[in-house]
Amino acid sequence: MTVPTSTRRRLTHLTTRLVDVAPALAALVMLIVAWEIWVRVRDTADYILPPPSQIWSAFVANRDLLGEHVVATLTEAGLGLAVGALLGIGLAVVIAGSQFARRVLYPLVVASQTIPMIILAPLFVLWFGFGLTPKVLVVALVTFFPVAIATVGGLTGVDPEMVDVVRSMGATRRDILLHVRVPHALPALFDGLRIAAAYTVAAAVIAEWTGASKGLGVYISRSQASFRVDQVFVAVVIVALLSTALFVVIGALARLASPWRFPSTTSPDPTSPIRRTPA
Fold first, then answer.
1. In terms of C-beta distances under 8 Å and separation of at least 24 residues, what long-range contacts does 116-120 make, across chains too?
2. What is the residue-level pLDDT of the chain in tens, covering all 279 positions?
3. pTM for the full predicted model
4. For residues 194 and 187, what is the distance between their CA atoms, to the nearest angstrom?
5. Which long-range contacts (CB under 8 A, 24 or more apart) does 226-231 make?
6. Distance (Å, rounded) from C-alpha 144 to C-alpha 75?
7. Rounded alpha-carbon distances, angstroms, from residue 118 to 47, 110, 125, 132, 169
C-alpha cells in the first residue's frame, strides 16, 4: 500500500517534533524519579518536601475541587492577556508613530514595571473591590509591557528604503502602517505575546492572593494554612502546565499569522511534480 505524500510529510513532521521534545521529557522523568528516591531514602517529612507520588495522590483526591479554581484563574489570565495585548499594541502604535510620544511615554512604560505587582494588587482591590476587575488589571499590567516593547521594535525596525519606496508611490502614513509596518511587526508582536503568556497565569495567582473566593491562588493559600505542601505542589504544577499551554497556543497563532517565519522542516518530496527551480 502506498502512503500518500501528504500523510508521509505529516508523519515526518510529527516524528521531528517528538525528537525535539524527547530530551526535555527524559530529563523531567529523571528529575521526578530522583526526587522520589531522594525523599524516600532521606525519609523527609511530608510537610517539608512530599514525594511526587504523594503529590499525584493529592491531585487525584482534589481533582473535582480543582476544576472551579482552574476555570477562575484561566478566565482572569485570558481576559488579562487580551486586555494587556490590546493595551500594548495600541501604545506601541502611538510610540512608533510619534517621536514626541516616544519621548513622553517610553520612560513611563519602563517605570511602570519597576513597581512590584505585589504592592499594586492590594491597591486595585481597594479601588475596584474583590471582583474580576482587579485580577484582570494585574494580569494586564504584567503582560502589556513585553507586548508593547516588542511591537515598538517591530514597527520601528522597518527598512527606511522600503518606507521611502512605498511613500514615493503615493502611500499615506496609514497605508505605510497597515501594509508595511504592521506585517513587519507581526513576528515581534507574537514574540512579545509568548513572553507575556509565560507570566499570565502566575500574575493571576498573585492577584488572587490579595482577595478572592476561588482560583488557584486561593487554593494555594488554603493549602498553606493547613500545611498541605503536597496540594501546594499540585497547584504549582497546574500553573506551569497552564502557562505552557498558553505559550504553545500563542506559538500556534504566530504560525498562522506569519507562516513565512516557520518554513517546513520536512524536505520536499523528490517524487513531487512540483520542483523548486534552481537559481
1. 117/141, 117/142, 117/203, 117/206, 118/206
2. 566 776 777 777 777 777 777 888 899 999 999 999 999 998 888 888 999 999 999 999 998 899 999 999 999 999 999 999 999 999 999 988 888 888 888 888 888 878 887 888 888 888 888 888 999 999 999 898 999 999 999 998 888 888 888 888 888 888 888 888 888 889 899 999 999 988 899 999 988 988 788 899 999 999 999 889 999 999 999 999 999 999 999 988 888 887 777 665 554 444 444 444 443
3. 0.79
4. 11
5. 227/47, 228/58, 229/46, 229/47, 229/48, 229/49, 229/50, 230/46, 230/50, 230/54, 230/55, 230/57, 230/58, 231/58, 231/62
6. 17
7. 26, 17, 12, 17, 51
**Number of other CB atoms surrounding residue 121 within 10 Å:** 22
CA–centroid distance for 167 within its chain = 36
Contact 223, 186 (CB under 8 A): no
- The answer to whether the beta carbons of residues 250 and 81 sit under 8 Å apart is no
For cell 520612560, the residue is 107
Cell of 65: 475541587
DSSP state of 272: -
Check if the beta carbon of residue 186 is closer than 8 Å to that of residue 228. no
Q: Map grid coordinates 504566530 to a residue.
A: 254
d(CA 269, CA 252): 25
